[in-house]
Amino acid sequence: MSMDIDDQPVAIQPGGTAGNGATILCCNCGAPIDGTSATGALCYDCVKLTVDISQGVQREATLHFCKDCDRWLMPPQTWIVALPESRELLALCLKKLRGLNKVRIVDASFVWTEPHSRRLRVKITIQDSVQDGVLLQQSFEVLYLLHTQQCRECAKSYTPAHWQACVQVRQKVLHKRTFLFLEQLILKHGAHKDTLNIKEAKDGIDFFFSARNQAEKFIDFLNSVVPVKVKSSQELISLDTHTMKRTYKFSFSAEIVPVCKDDLVAIPIKLAKQSGNISPLLLCYKIGTAVYLMDPQTLQTADISGPIYWRAPFSALSDTQELIEFIVMDVEYTGQQKGKWKLAEATVARASDLGSNDTTYFTRTHLGGLLQPGDSAMGYLLNGTNYNNPEYEAIEQSSTYSSTMPDVVLVKKHFPRKKKSRRRNWRLKRMDKDEGELLPKKADQDRMDREYEAFLRDVEEDEELRAALALYKQQKEEEEMSMADESDDAEAPQVNMEELLDDFDELRMEDA
């Protein structure tokens, strides 16, 4: 019987002998031995060669692991996290062997194997008593075959219909500007990594999760970036009458305030007085954890938080789809400044009126540091415009505020562009959404493309907005094409290459 030196058993002799020391011959090899010893009629060398204490222990076993989450299956249905060659993985390997509980484990360690071989080798040293007073120690190797098996949680992630919690994000506006901004924040912070499915819906997006706490975590993220009002509900799915165990599906409705950046709003006069006696006709210059408003005639600002807004809600008078192009005829800086804004008095005319009439409008604007005579600016024309809005009617009837209402409210400087869609040296990532039954028609798709192009131009023109997003370098082929088109929009703002990030996912794909 031939075996490895490491696999040869070692007989541990007893501490002493009994009797008068009679000598007999070994029944196997004929060597003289003590007849009163515990080994009986075998010498110690024959005991090592003929007795195998690992005979009832498995030499091969199978381990299951989930390649999606890198967890290991612990019988019966428990999935544990264990690093390669860790104590947790070694304990799992020992528990998988049948017959190991009948012997004493002295030592166990991993034997190196090639990482991609789907094999694990473990060297185990055991001890067992073969006869009274004699212990036998033996070392052997066990081979483990690695098989992949998808865990229950990962299987749910590939089944969009199987969800436990849903977050319905809605905003009652006619455009998707806020959702485009929110999408970039979600991608930058990875808030969508636990979603089972993301589905387009009317006026918003639905996010599906496999657990309630994941949906609540997503709600906390929404509260940290946009002002929302959240309502929750639950539906009983199943009930076990024996154990009284219930299964629910949870739904969260998150409504975003219907006000966007660059919108013209009329807030209630009472709220305006409570906000530092500011003018009730304001311009929204930013959306964050609150609605940030500004009076372009005085540079006074007010922050309306979500709870305050929902106590006295108001809607936008005009949004960016109603902006009109004005030509600056004259501008004079007044000397008042607040942050990046400079108050100025300007005389403007509609671009469509040039050459047909001489109608001009006088206004105060916060764009004094940007505008020069001859520049173009986008703004709202209030003179001669009727708004079906009770808050605006209250301002017109008020003796305090009606006399200070401007004819024109300028919003931003306009940069003429020769091409409808300019190729850029940067890009934004998009979420994978399921459109479901809401497949856009050609007219709707054209509108969505125009809104996305307008959002990209806002990113180029607003440094503060750009700092909150993650911009990535364009692919090499399109980058060369964009460099050739830069001369077409030389006056338009550009994004510096220092602000762009490398997309490591694409770099890994190129290396592969």
Automatic annotation (TrEMBL):
Belongs to the NMD3 family. The keyword Protein transport applies. GO terms for cellular component: cytoplasm; nucleus. The keyword Cytoplasm applies. Acts as an adapter for the XPO1/CRM1-mediated export of the 60S ribosomal subunit. This is 60S ribosomal export protein NMD3. Residues 477-491 have a biased composition (Acidic residues). Residues 259-305 form the 60S ribosomal export protein NMD3 SH3 domain. Residues 475-495 are annotated as: Disordered. It is found in: Cytoplasm; Nucleus. Keywords: Cytoplasm, Nucleus, Protein transport, Transport. GO terms for biological process: protein transport; ribosomal large subunit export from nucleus. Residues 26-256 form the Nmd3 N-terminal domain. Residues 323-413 form the 60S ribosomal export protein NMD3 OB-fold domain. GO terms for molecular function: ribosomal large subunit binding.
